[in-house]
Amino acid sequence: MLKSNYSGCLLEAGTDEAGRGCLSGPVVAAAVILPKDFSHPLLNDSKQLSEKNREILKPIIEEQALAYAVSFIYQDEVDQLNVLQASITGMHRAIGGLKIAPEFIIVDGNKFRSYKEIPHETIVKGDAKFLSIAAASVLAKTYRDAYMKKIHQEFTMYNWQKNKGYPTKEHRAAIREFGATIHHRKTFKLLPEQLKLKL
């Protein structure tokens, strides 16, 4: 059973991101402040949910949240910042986009930089423990998946509508055959053989 609150503050924002481990596309972050009585039987860590259930939850979260915001950190900025800093920057931008300022922030994972003067706590596997982080994980994932399906139309050979930019065998085979696109992260090891030195 996911908990509704960590801090005791009424305006507690949960934040999470999607797409850190991908070879292409953006890191997408979301922040959500839920009402204290919010509950939904389906809501869980987005990785535990089917795509269908994530799509069911998305409009419910958006409708019932006191505030929510989503931010995109595109591949060039991911390359520039590194993926951890891109994730934290994305979460900061999402929190900054909330129409209500939170009194406390709970963050999925164990790394975060303070946002303004707002107290925060990092929670490992927080998306499986707290409703607001789970809600943020669902929004980050659904927005990112929709974006990957959109850019798939232009580059169908990578099958992003299915693999969403993650390093599957099929995705790597397509990179090997067709090379990298503008959507690929240049600082990521796109192919295992990039590790081998040319002597």
TrEMBL record:
It comes from the Bacteria. Residues 10-199 form the RNase H type-2 domain. Manganese or magnesium. Binds 1 divalent metal ion per monomer in the absence of substrate. May bind a second metal ion after substrate binding. It is found in: Cytoplasm. Gene3D superfamilies: Ribonuclease H-like superfamily/Ribonuclease H. Keywords: Cytoplasm, Endonuclease, Hydrolase, Manganese, Metal-binding, Nuclease. One of its GO terms (cellular component) is cytoplasm. PROSITE patterns: RNASE_H_2 (PS51975). A divalent metal cation binds at residues 16-17, 108. Its EC number is 3.1.26.4. One of its GO terms (molecular function) is RNA-DNA hybrid ribonuclease activity. Belongs to the RNase HII family. PANTHER family: RIBONUCLEASE H2 SUBUNIT A (PTHR10954), RIBONUCLEASE HII (PTHR10954:SF18). Endonuclease that specifically degrades the RNA of RNA-DNA hybrids. This is Ribonuclease HII. The lineage of its organism: Bacteria, Pseudomonadati, Bacteroidota, Flavobacteriia, Flavobacteriales. The gene is rnhB.
